From TrEMBL, chain A:
Protein's UniProt name: Cellobiose transport system substrate-binding protein
UniProt-listed PROSITE patterns: PROKAR_LIPOPROTEIN
Xref: Pfam families: SBP_bac_8
UniProt KW keywords: Signal
InterPro entries: Bact_solute-bd_prot1 (IPR050490), SBP (IPR006059)
SUPFAM superfamilies on file: Periplasmic binding protein-like II
Signal peptide region: 1-24
Automatic annotation (TrEMBL), chain B:
Protein name from the UniProt record: Cellobiose transport system permease protein
Classification via Gene3D superfamilies: MetI-like
Organism: Microbacterium amylolyticum
Bilayer topology: Multi-pass membrane protein
Disordered: region residues: 1-23, 336-359
A Pfam short name: BPD_transp_1
Domain ABC transmembrane type-1, chain residue ranges per copy: 102-317
């Protein structure tokens, strides 16, 4: 009975069977992991997912294994967007790491699902800067995230270009030039007049800086959208259009042109959180004019930073909380700063000598550690950012870009933005 | 065969059928005969069933799921939603962005498909000639198709950068001056179309080449004997023979063109289609609704609108091309409706006559 047709059929069955076995194998291995890390007993492994560079090096995580015997598996997504997709895809079901990294830009969206996150245990609260903690507290008063780094903004400037334009170039003198936004734009006008070159890199980063100094921006904590009625937003928009546009090289950041221009000396200043230092140094390794001034027009402003969260339906919630606690302790955060420039959000870290004594060789030996501390302490306002902050702010950036590109008049562009906000 | 005979004998007792009928077909069969009959009838369906099962799982299910979600205010994370009817569709149709996206999609589609097909035809004709190292040239035509679209986007972006890009540097060098690629809608469409063309021209050229090679060489010989030149041969032999392939290429590139996504997504660093939606396409808008605003209800409604648009354009496409190219596939002359009816009537009559003859 062994006809060719039969043999073929048998082969087919074998293939199907193999496939079924493989599927069964997957199921079995899933079950295994579950059994391995069943609740109650302490796990031997914990997983953490971050993106970009949190400063959690192999050596750092190995220290935790030495202390506790728990091995930490670190998954790193290339970009914050990748991490965002992954987190939101799996948040409602399963498949997330024991600890997930979250960026402040999309943190407000996550806060809508704060009930799916395990709250920070009572003893750990109070470690972070007030506003860092306030942003991670949900409507019920639960702190649901562990702050990692922050982005207290200073001003990066090209000392050589300042000197050529007849401006002071010493970082302390430069810092005194910018007490207010008006003073900042006056200096900008002088610079543009003297050199014919733009003063600052991007108008949208000015908008970002201004908006972050408001207490209420686009939404109230009740979920009401006030973007259209908030006169402070309109004021910021008008100021950016009238004063920042004429002195900026670009509308927005992160374009190919923008990257290329950091080394070419196309502009002289950038609003600069600590994480931007690495980007400048990386893009313009051969430029030796960059410096950092401990100043920010109109008080402090924070741009960026991250949190760690523990999904409540994870298998090892308690052990994960202990790890998140350790990772965001002041001592570990100072190490993360040394590793990757992630500026700590824990005031206790600001007493550490490794931070206060830190100088950046690239930025003409500027004490960037101490500058970061000063800037962090000058941040007095933490704006409320609701779940729609990101799309609304993004649309406002585009409104500025349209005016910059000459596609629409300032008023038309503002109205287009209002329509977009209304349709969200 | 023994069993079959026995079976036939055993079941032959029921009322005898008319003698003429008994001659022609045996109504009752043994099990093994039934089996082989089923084998004949059912097996083909079984053999192709894996495809349909797979299609039901990965094709039909998402299609229906999307349709359901499109009528709901859907929360993807909590996997729950509220039925709201056609609100999402109404919302999309009321968005100025949607109409801009539709315009951009068609603009990019035309700017890419038309030059692409003309160029592909030209390349295919060149490759069809007797040249040295044929395989080398044919493979190199396909090479860009192998490059990942995201990589193409990255490379072309560096070229098209407004200030630091090579293309503007060349344009300035020859005195035309820089073009605002990321500002003017038309120029952004041109730039994106070049990326699309870069990838797909070679692919289409190879398909057309394959069709050209299937044209019998006798035609060309006969034409040469009749004194037809190269151009005349191209117009009177190559082009008409390519028509069915052309329909295929046009329809696939229409579907691809209306779904253009990677190239505009990679055209700037934000992937939002430009500050004034200059190069926002339907799929890009769909993607941003779903994956950046997490509004899966709207994204699903958009997906269905896109499906309907593609269906409509596809039908128009088919009708137009069939009108233009009556003799698609060379299956005899096209008949008018009256002729077709006449033909059917004739056939029916003939069949009736045959039956009567048999009785």
């Amino acid at each position: 009975m062994s006809t060719p047709a039969n043999r073929r059929a048998a082969g087919g069955i074998a293939v199907v069977a193999a496939g079924a076995l493989a599927l069964a194998g997957c199921g079995a291995s899933d079950a295994d992991t579950d059994a391995n890390t069943g609740d109650g007993s302490a796990p031997t492994e914990l997983s953490i997912s971050t993106f970009n560079d949190f400063g959690y090096t192999e050596e750092l995580l190995a220290m935790y294994e030495e202390e506790t015997g728990i091995r930490v598996i670190h998954n790193r997504a290339a970009t914050s967007n990748d991490a965002r997709y992954n987190l939101f895809q799996k948040l409602g079901s399963s498949g997330l790491s024991d600890i997930e990294g979250v960026e402040v830009d999309w943190f407000a969206e996550l806060m809508e699902y704060s009930d799916l996150l395990a709250p920070v245990p009572a003893g750990v609260e109070g470690r972070w800067l007030d506003w860092k903690e306030a942003a991670a507290t949900d409507a019920d008063g639960n702190l649901v995230a562990y702050g990692t780094d922050i982005g207290p903004q200073g001003i990066c400037f090209r000392a050589d270009l300042f000197e050529a334009a007849g401006l002071p170039s010493d970082r302390d003198e430069v810092a005194e030039l910018f007490p207010t936004w008006d003073a900042f734009f006056d200096v900008a006008d002088d610079y543009v007049e003297a050199t014919g070159q733009p003063f600052i890199d991007a108008s949208n980063s000015v908008l970002q800086g201004m908006v972050n100094q408001l207490t209420e921006i686009y939404e109230t904590p009740d979920g009401e959208i006030i973007a259209d009625s908030n006169s402070a937003v309109r004021e910021a928009y008008d100021t950016v259009i009238e004063r920042a546009l004429p002195v900026s090289a670009y509308a927005g950041q992160w374009s190919d042109d923008w990257y290329a221009s950091m080394s070419s000396g196309e502009f002289a200043t950038m609003l600069c959180p600590p994480w931007m230092h690495g980007i400048i140094a990386g893009e313009a390794p051969n430029v030796d004019g960059w410096d950092v001034a401990s100043a920010y027009p109109g008080g402090g402003s924070n741009w960026g930073g991250s949190y760690l969260v523990v999904p409540a339906n994870g298998d090892n919630v308690e052990a994960a909380q202990a790890l998140a606690d350790w990772l965001t302790s002041p001592e570990t955060q100072v190490k993360a700063f040394e590793n990757a420039g992630a500026f700590p959000s824990q005031p206790a870290a600001y007493e550490s000598e490794s931070l206060t004594g830190y100088v950046s060789e690239y930025f003409n030996d500027a004490p960037t550690g101490q500058i970061g501390i000063d800037r962090a302490e000058s941040v007095s306002v933490e704006p409320f950012k609701g779940p729609k902050f990101f799309p609304i702010h993004d649309a406002l950036n585009q409104a500025v870009t349209r005016v910059f590109d000459g596609l629409e008049s300032p008023d038309d562009s503002w109205n287009t933005w209002l329509n977009e906000v209304a349709s969200l | 065969m023994l069993i079959a005979d026995k079976g036939a004998a055993r079941t032959a007792s029921p009322p005898p059928s008319p003698p003429s009928d008994r001659q022609r077909r045996v109504r009752v069969l043994s099990f093994s005969q039934k089996l082989s009959r089923w084998d004949l009838k059912v097996s083909p369906f079984l053999y192709i069933s894996p495809f349909f099962l797979l299609f039901a799982i990965v094709g039909l299910f998402p299609l229906i799921y999307t349709a359901v979600i499109s009528f709901m205010d859907w929360d993807q994370i909590r996997q729950e939603g509220e039925f709201i009817g056609f609100d999402q569709y109404a919302w999309i149709l009321s968005q100025p962005k949607f109409w801009i996206a539709l315009r951009n999609t068609f603009s990019i589609f035309l700017l890419s498909s038309v030059p692409q097909l003309i160029l592909a035809l030209f390349i295919a004709t060149m490759l069809d000639r007797h040249i040295r190292a044929k395989t080398f040239w044919r493979m190199s035509a396909l090479l860009p198709y192998v490059v990942a679209p995201v990589a193409v986007g990255l490379i072309f972006n560096a070229l098209y950068a407004d200030n630091s890009g090579q293309i503007n540097a060349w344009l300035t060098a020859i005195g035309i001056g820089p073009i605002p690629w990321h500002v003017e809608p038309f120029w952004s469409h041109v730039a994106i179309s070049t990326m699309v063309n870069y990838r797909w021209t070679g692919y289409n050229a190879l398909i057309l080449l394959a069709a050209m090679q299937a044209i019998p060489r006798d035609y060309y010989e006969a034409a040469r004997v009749d004194g037809a030149g190269v151009l005349r041969q191209f117009w009177s032999i190559t082009l008409p023979s390519l028509k069915p392939t052309f329909i295929f290429v046009i329809i696939t590139s229409t579907i691809g063109g209306l779904q253009v996504f990677e190239e505009p997504r990679m055209f700037d660093q934000y992937g939002q289609g430009g500050a004034a939606s200059q190069w926002l396409t339907i799929t890009l808008y769909l993607y941003n609704l779903g994956w950046s605003e997490w509004n899966f209800g709207r994204a699903a409604a958009m997906a269905w609108l896109l499906f309907l648009i593609i269906l409509a354009i596809g039908l128009i496409n088919l009708l137009v091309t069939q009108k233009l190219i009556g003799d698609a596939g060379g299956r005899g002359p096209t008949l008018t409706r009256a002729q077709r009816r006449q033909l059917a009537r004739d056939q029916r009559d003939r069949r009736a006559q045959n039956k009567e003859g048999a009785r």
